[in-house]
Amino acid sequence: MWIIFRREVGQYFASPVAYLIAAGFLVLTALIFNNDLTVSATVKPASPSVVPAFLSFALVFFAPLLTMRMLAEESREGTLELLLTAPVTDSAIVLGKFLGAWFYYTMLLALTLVYQVILVSVTQPDLGHAISAYIGIWLYGGATIAVGLLFSALTENQVIAAFLATAALLILWLGGLAGQIVANLDLARMLYTLTLQGHFTSSFAVGLLRVEDAAYYAGMMAIMLFITIRIVESHRWRG
Amino acid sequence: MIEVRNLTKRFGSHTAVDDLSFDAQPGEIVGILGPNGAGKTTTMRMLTGFMPPTSGTAKIAGFDVFNDSLEVRARVGYLPEQVPVYPDMTVRGYVTFWAELRGVRKPHARVDEVIERVQLTDRRNSLIRNLSKGMRQRLGLAQAIVHDPQVIILDEPTIGIDPQQVIEVRETVRQFRTKHTVLFSTHILSEAEQICDRVLIIHQGRIVAEGAPATLRQQLQPGAHLYVLIGGADEAQARNLLEHIPGVQSVQAQGEGFTIRTQPDVDIRAEVSESVMRAGFALLELRPVAMTLEDIFLDIVGRKT
């Protein structure tokens, strides 16, 4: 598993596309942070969770970019057949790839900690709030990457993989809005707690660390990865 | 080393491999020969642990391909028909990756050795996307042998590359013989004849013939063939003459002369020349015709369908 993990991480750093993605990621988050900082100079106190909150939306588009290549390319190039005849289990293949993508995301996320350093140097932010938001968005990222990986396993075409993953994530993200147009309060609350936002915006992002939210993202990763492993395995049964 | 018993694979109602049994000894190069869609790839995929058989068993080095799949996979080197490469990796990175994945300890020396063996040393730091098809094919061979497997399975390794490279690949495969058991599929008959110690001819998922290329030719030859060219007789006369020689089973016009089929193990060349002389014609040519595997193959496949 770690050999696959290392190859995936190596691939990210070997390819110029990955650097472009990283640059775009940092430029966007910097703009958001800078904007918030300007506003907070006059109107409101600076929020340590502004970057994670922005990422919770950006990941809908960003996570599929990280994962679209991973399994789609393997099955297109025929290397999947070779991986499946190497002495590694199917789950090690999937987990290695997942951890590779999550690790790369973690590195990018770590880079955004520079904003927290800036914040600490100019004001006195609530560090607990910042830590909670970062833990939240880290788990959130893992869950979206797991979704992206699943769609990469479904097709040989990277573009289709990315598109389907974005669509799926958007539904998971927008599900909260559906709650707003449902009259029944219980149903609305249920819908909201099923969405990606439901376990971030109103908990981690406001400095709340709850087991149920962490469990939601962990469960999401587990389920997505389980399905992905089954899909990879299904290559053995097809003609 | 390879032990296959009643191996069967069905996809829905279609039977791709039908009750296949064969063995391969260490140091042997076994060729699987058959037209496209005969079940060669499916057989190999079952032996590499890629897909499970519907019924029957296959063992590699004593391990069952289904029950001890990981043990089998550690002992097999495999090159699928479509050479699987990562275009963004370097030659060295690629071979190292497969070496590590298959548990080679301290892979670097071994990787360099293997790259040397497939003559890619001068390209070892190139990206794979810049390699020619023949080089990729050799790279594919490199990943298949890097962990020094007991069994090497190659699925049509000479397809789609130019003749010079075909010769190089064949040469490389022949070198494997000393240390490995090689299972090799092809639909080019002359290739099987050149490389393999033993050939299995597969048609519609079944073995229709098996043996060393030379014995196969002998066994399957349904009698000896002679080519006869007679001077001074027209076609009807010549045909009539030949048909009346005892021991001749059939006479077929071929070019200016005739190919006659005789009973096996009976040499009638003396009778033929004598009859021709006696009839007052000239015997211009008389030679035995060796059937190529190609002829045998077409003969068998034709008979079965």
Features:
heterodimer, A: 239 residues, mainly alpha, 10 helices, B: 305 residues, alpha/beta, Rossmann fold, Alpha-Beta Plaits, 2 domains, six-stranded mixed beta sheet, four-stranded antiparallel beta sheet, 11 helices, 14 strands, 36% helix
Describe this structure in words.
The complex is a heterodimer of chains A (239) and B (305). Chain A is mainly alpha-helical. Chain A contains ten helices and no strands. The radius of gyration of chain A is 19 Å and the shape is globular. Chain B has 305 residues and is of the alpha/beta class. Chain B folds into two domains: 2-219, Rossmann fold (3-Layer(aba) Sandwich); 223-290, Alpha-Beta Plaits. Chain B has helices at residues 40-47, 69-75, 91-101, 107-117, 133-145, 163-176, 189-195, 213-220, 235-243, 269-278, 293-304; strands at residues 2-11, 14-24, 29-33, 55-60, 63-64, 76-79, 151-155, 181-186, 198-203, 206-211, 225-231, 248-254, 257-262, 282-289. A six-stranded mixed beta sheet of chain B has the order 6-7-8-3-9-10, sandwiched between helices. A four-stranded antiparallel beta sheet of chain B has the order 2-1-4-5, covered by helices on one side. Chain B has a four-stranded antiparallel beta sheet with strand order 12-13-11-14, with helices on one face. Chains A and B meet through helix 1 and helix 4 of A and helix 2 and helix 3 of B.
